[in-house]
């Protein structure tokens, strides 16, 4: 029995959509959309695509052939994902060209050549921007620039292994900006995105078929214990194992070259390359989906804890073990997320204070940015109050952020300026863009006017107190509904 597809994803000309409209209609409502008209000027569009609208494999081999990348074997399942192996881009391209030359007959599920089974390679999660920062292949559309995840990772590590004080390479990802290259027939199994982040995915060339499930229906694709999720929605899915599956209602989208799809938080999706395809995608979160990230961490923590409950009595540091397992499974733990939130709180407060002091708090064009910063602080405060009752963070004895030290830290200063520039850009306040290009931390912070800046943040209560102290002087509306 096939799946039940009812409806398509809305398509909008990105050139005719304002940032506020995108936020109101899609980001805040957590609704998917396809945006057109935003990629014409990308270098990737010219360098990576042949005149016949095919991937320019030769270009990749010549210019980026020595990069080591992850290549999925689309025919082999490994746990909840496809089996992956590391290889050079040049070797991956050679495999793609070989397949083309031997005119492999592919469909979504199987691929065979002269009767012999051939696996379909799919290059995934290539940290292209990190690896080639000088080669500017594309520009992130402004709808997706309020990206706290990548801004943070450009300056800080998300998880440091406290045993070794070394960044754990496996857990600590350098960023969430990726290039994917897949031949026709390659695909990605059903999943929801890392951290329940948003993602955007742009087709530089080729065509993808996406199937989406609204988060309100996600219970339908899990087994009775809510542990295992369907892997491939086009397989024969066992009704006894996944009793809700046949009731799931899917949305569909065929994404063409030049189109960008916005994938909201918690939407499960499966993706098939209908042609040889190159895509660029980012995962990100900000104030609008912060609670999704926190809810996932809480759920995964409870799962990690239940899993080792039977060794609790013989374990010296049970809580520490739960946090280590959480970081290993989910990519960050409570401390990592709380540290992240604390830095963004301080950055938002510094910027709000600066804008209010320099331009006045209620009038003028900069007030849109002030409102955005206030909204961010409201969301950070709300999430911090949900974290208050978590034992792992209660009475935490390690200082997460010492605010004065943060001001002296060039990484924080870079983060702050970048956040400032981002809001100035998305809200089209060019005079402020230049402010944040030329400013230093001492331009932004008037150390004499706030005792709050001497604070140290250990717990969610400290963070809430810090927000309340500074905001009470600036924007009391932030505190109103939290
Ligand atoms: O393009 C693909 O194959 C998968 C992309 C995806 O699932 C995502 O961006 O979340």
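Sequence proposed for the structure above (482 residues):
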């Amino acid at each position: 029995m096939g799946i039940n597809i009812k409806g398509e994803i809305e398509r909008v000309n990105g050139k005719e959509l304002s940032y506020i409209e995108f936020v109101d209609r899609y980001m805040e409502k957590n609704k998917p959309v396809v945006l057109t008209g935003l990629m014409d000027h990308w270098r990737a569009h010219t360098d990576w695509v042949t005149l016949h609208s095919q991937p320019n494999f030769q270009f990749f081999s010549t210019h980026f052939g020595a990069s080591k990348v992850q290549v999925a074997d689309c025919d082999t399942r490994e746990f909840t994902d496809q089996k992956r192996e590391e290889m050079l881009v040049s070797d991956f391209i050679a495999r793609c060209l070989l397949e083309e030359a031997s005119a492999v007959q592919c469909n979504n599920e199987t691929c065979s050549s002269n009767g012999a089974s051939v696996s379909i390679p799919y290059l995934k999660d290539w940290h292209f921007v990190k690896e080639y920062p000088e080669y500017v292949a594309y520009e992130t559309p402004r709808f997706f620039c309020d990206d706290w995840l990548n801004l943070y990772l450009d300056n800080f590590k998300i998880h440091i292994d406290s045993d070794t004080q070394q960044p754990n390479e496996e857990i600590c990802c350098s960023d969430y900006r990726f290039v994917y290259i897949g031949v026709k027939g390659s695909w990605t199994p059903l999943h929801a995105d890392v951290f329940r982040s948003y993602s955007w995915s742009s087709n530089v060339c080729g065509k993808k078929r996406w199937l989406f499930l609204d988060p309100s229906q996600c219970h339908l694709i899990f087994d009775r214990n809510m542990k295992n999720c369907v892997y491939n929605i086009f397989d024969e899915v066992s009704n006894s194992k996944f009793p809700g599956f046949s009731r799931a209602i899917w949305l569909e989208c065929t994404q063409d070259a030049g189109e960008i799809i916005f994938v909201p938080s918690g939407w499960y999706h499966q993706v098939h390359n209908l042609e040889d395809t190159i895509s660029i995608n980012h995962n990100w979160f900000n104030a609008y989906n912060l609670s999704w990230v926190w809810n996932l961490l809480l759920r995964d923590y409870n799962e990690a804890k239940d899993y080792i409950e039977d060794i609790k009595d013989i374990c010296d540091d049970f809580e520490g073990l739960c946090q280590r397992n959480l970081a290993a499974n989910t990519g960050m733990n409570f401390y990592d997320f709380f540290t992240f939130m604390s830095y963004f709180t301080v950055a938002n407060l510094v910027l709000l204070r600066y804008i209010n002091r320099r331009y006045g708090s209620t009038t003028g064009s900069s007030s849109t940015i002030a409102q955005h910063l206030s909204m961010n602080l409201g969301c950070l405060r709300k999430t911090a109050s949900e974290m208050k009752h978590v034992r792992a963070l209660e009475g935490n004895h390690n200082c997460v952020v010492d605010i004065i030290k943060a001001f002296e830290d060039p990484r924080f200063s870079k983060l702050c300026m970048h956040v400032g520039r981002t809001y100035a850009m998305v809200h089209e306040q060019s005079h402020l863009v230049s402010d944040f290009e030329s400013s230093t931390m001492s331009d932004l912070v008037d150390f004499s006017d706030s005792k709050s800046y001497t604070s140290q943040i250990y717990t969610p209560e400290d963070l809430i107190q810090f927000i309340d102290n500074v905001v009470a002087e600036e924007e009391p509306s932030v505190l109103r509904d939290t």
